[in-house]
Amino acid sequence: MAADPRHQAGAAAEYAAAQYLVSQGLTLLDANVRYRDGELDLVMRDGGTLVFVEVRYRANAEFGGAAASVTPTKQRRLIRAATRYLAAHPAYAALPCRFDVIGAEGDQIAPQLTWLHAAFDAGR
């Protein structure tokens, strides 16, 4: 059975994003962490900050592009997943956290990446 092309594109974008962020000095801690009410694409460390990264792939920039697709509802799901992650990893609970978004657009193999630092916050 062939894999879903959308899933393949998303996985390729997540891989490209992880590679890019590592090249920028971040450390990959976890990927594709799933909880009942949300998923974390990438969990990284940027110095003393824990970074939850949402990767959004779009073939083109129609309808606002990849980054615009992180709606307030999606943000709440990411915040809930991050809260669960912190509860499961108490060693990270005292670190400052931020939520970044990587927009990946265009070619699936080598997408154009846009990194939005601190794209939204959890209000904590």
UniProtKB/TrEMBL annotation:
The keyword Flavoprotein does not apply. InterPro entries: Restrct_endonuc-II-like, tRNA_endonuc-like_dom_sf, UPF0102_YraN-like. The keyword Hydrolase applies. Keywords: Endonuclease, Hydrolase, Nuclease. Gene3D superfamilies: 3.40.1350.10. Pfam families: UPF0102. One of its GO terms (molecular function) is endonuclease activity. Belongs to the UPF0102 family. This is UPF0102 protein SAMN05421546_0199. It comes from Solilutibacter tolerans.
